Amino acid sequence: MRVAIAGAGAVGRSIAGELLENGHEILLIDKAPTAISVERVPLAEWLLADACEITSLDEAALQRCNVVIAATGDDKVNLVVSLLAKTEYGVPRVVARVNNPKNEWLFNESWGVDVAVSTPRLMSALVEEAVSVGDLVRLLRFSHGDANLVELTLPPESAVTGTQVGDVVWPEDTSLVTIIRGTRVLTPGPEETLEAGDELLFVAAQAREEQLEDLLSVRRESD
């Protein structure tokens, strides 16, 4: 798979290194000469160019890319790169970094973004995930279909604890994708029994999140 990464800073280089280890073809693009550090990611292609310019993206042959990652530290740049990648070059999948959570609402399909990754939001979500049991935590937002990757650690008092996955009536537009139990990652087959302490990962429509949390968590009786 060919992947172009706009932004060759620490984030872009780190992503490039991981993808190269997985056998992908990587192109790093940055307009700052000081960011071009070929020796740090020697197996990647490098391009000194402005990723917001059509001529630069033509030179990068963006139409050949399966994925474009807009990973700069500037949200405006990431939005422009995403829009150009999707509308001008028809890149199938565009992933964009959100630096300021206040701008997260802009990172949607209108700007060509398939997946928006907000580092501050993700870090806070992981903190919440580590200390919360029975509360739904949003980890990642997908632009298409207004869906999110959400997590909930199943409390012992949940009505579905001890129930088989196939016997649970899940909300519409909700899919249980993974169960993390201790060090094991389980595929949630219909006969898998849900246990207290399971970390359940769902892809769910935002409108269904409250319904999903009510189903799984301990209901709080009103005073």
TrEMBL record:
Superkingdom classification of source: Bacteria
PROSITE patterns hit by this protein: RCK_C, RCK_N
Residue span(s) of domain RCK C-terminal: 137-218
Keyword Transport included in the entry's annotation: yes
Alphabetical list of Pfam families matching this protein: TrkA_C, TrkA_N
Keyword Lyase listed: no
Entry keywords, A to Z: Ion transport, NAD, Potassium, Potassium transport, Transport
Protein name: Trk system potassium uptake protein TrkA
